[in-house]
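Dear support,

I submitted the protein below through the web form. The confirmation email said the job was done, but the results page showed an empty box. After a refresh the structure appeared. I'm attaching both so you can tell me whether what I see now is the final result or a partial one.
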Amino acid sequence: MPLFRCQSLVLLTFFLCGCVAADVHGDIQGVVADEAPYVSRLNEPQSNAYFHYARARMLMAENDREGALEAYQRAIDYDPGSEDLRFELAEFYLAIEQPEKAVRTVEDVLLRHPESIKANLILANAYLGNRQPEKAVPYFRHVLELDPENEAVRLHLAIALVRAGDIDLASEELKELLKRSPDSMPGRLAMARLYRETGLNLLAVEQYRDLISRYPGMDQAYLELGILYEELGEWQNALDVFSGALEQRPFDFALRHHLARVYVGMKRYDDALEQLNIIVELKPEDFDARRKIGLIFLEQHRWADAISAFRDILDLQPDLDPARYYLGTAYESLSEWELALEAFQGIDRNSALYDDAVSHIGYIFLETGRISEAIELLESRLAEGQPRPQVFNSLASLYMVNAQNDKALMTVERGIKLYQDNIDLLYQRALILERIGQHEEAIQAAKDLLVIDDEHAEALNFLAYSLAVDNRDLYEALDYAERANKLKPAPHILDTLGWVYYRLGRLDEALEIIKEASRQLPEDAVVFEHLGDIHLAMNNLKQARAAFEKALQLQPDNVELRSKLDTLADNQ
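What the results page shows now:
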């Protein structure tokens, strides 16, 4: 309805007033004698429709929704064939969050004009925006039947098909788009994203590379290709992409952030710090860069530098709880308990980090000989409402330290009722059950954990060691130990793997592995006892004695170790 698009309420007022004036001053000079007589058009349907349309717009501006809606309906009553009026009414329904009525209004247009491209597109986009992509698809398809060369519509159809889960059909539409428009930048970008979302990463890389070669200045292609390489852990490729882009745009801070992440992934921390320091120098208010600098210092165990970085952040923004939390972590790592306590206690009770801070405070109390205060603090937090899982975990640990194993188990069970799949609580339950002598229940608890997370290295190690100690199901134990060692090659896991080999009679392999574990754990009595047992089994009596003596030195009250040494002395 073009009339509505070009006229305004002012023109309407002028039209009405002008007619009256001409009637009153009929003898005004300049009116030629043979001019056609004036005929009033005030009662014509289009004039009435426009009057109510203008009134609807005015009432909308005054936020009178009911009045505006009534005026729109009156306008349509006077001009029922107007598509534009119905489209405006549909937009109004969307504005007042009544999408169902908007859809019905546009459907009324389609009943009269099924080939209306605009009506089909409005419905398609409405359904797509309302997360009903399967309903949007037929309308997009109908528009393409009417306008097969419409690149934007075919692109939106592909997006709707992806969201509806029809990946193959989406791919076909994008291929058709590129067949018709080989140089379509949006089409090729959409195809690259489709490949990426469906795990066809090599094809995605190919599309991104093709885009970059066709459009060297296309920042989005560089960015998404670099991120894809990041996700794949192909750090050098990601580095090459981001470095190349940075040469063209040296003041693009987002690129420098990506470069820093890549360097961290490559464990090139100094290079990451260089990029982040450039950002901070040029953009001092970039708190994300400052935070990353502090986190890198924490990763490098550069506690003093981390403290300085987080203090700088807090000087600029004192209410930034994450910076306060990391500051406390750095002080805690230096055993500067009072400063750590001050940092953690400064975290707001409404912060997402509050429960983490409470757990750290409990640990600090434990380390400073205030275990009763630690327990009281965490018990109070539990009484306040539903805390996060780490509060249950920390309190259970404190109960275990305080030899209150029953309370520890009750606390963990209470936490698991709230957080059934929390792996830390499930693992803690296995440890507590083992501690109180419920050995088989502990093994089952660890197996239950693996159902949820089959790559939990500590649970795998727990099962392997338990079975090795029992001297049963040794090949199952070996599988657990090898999987744990692959996931987390830590010295205590090496010890478990060596002990399983010992139980299997594979003494040479056991000896080499336990030797390495003892080098990495020079203060662990159990590892040296294992080393002595292996030497003893291989009849290496001198080496066995040395290993047992070292173990006894670390654990002087171990009666079993003393007995082993006495037996060796009797046999020599």
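Response: this is the final, complete result; the empty box was a page-load delay. Residues 45-61 form the longest helix (17 residues).
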